[in-house]
Amino acid sequence: MAMTGTTKAEDSTLPESATITIRDQKLYLCGEVEVTPNGGRIHFQNEDDKEYRLRFWKTEANAEEGIDILLSAGASVTVVINKDDVFSYSFRDIGDSKVASGKGGGPIKN
What we know:
Blueprint: H1 5-13, E1 17-23, E2 26-28, E3 33-34, E4 40-46, E5 52-58, E6 67-71, E7 76-81, E8 86-93, E9 104-109
């Protein structure tokens, strides 16, 4: 599919990646985050000394239907975003499978 000059300009102004940091059990850069299509990356960096459960779900779905990924203490996880992906996310204690209010963000999207 051919892209117009406007579409190319819009895509080229989006960053290749973004980093969402968890520090003191709080999110930094927790609003809407958008990266380039086809390989844009969202890095989740955990600066705390405890591990967390990251949950991702399609914004139109229920959070309980999402997928969980382990974010180890002091580690990072990278999510690759495809064109037109839109996900909400939250983080919570590893033993807590319920969505914790105030510990979510997003959406992350292209």
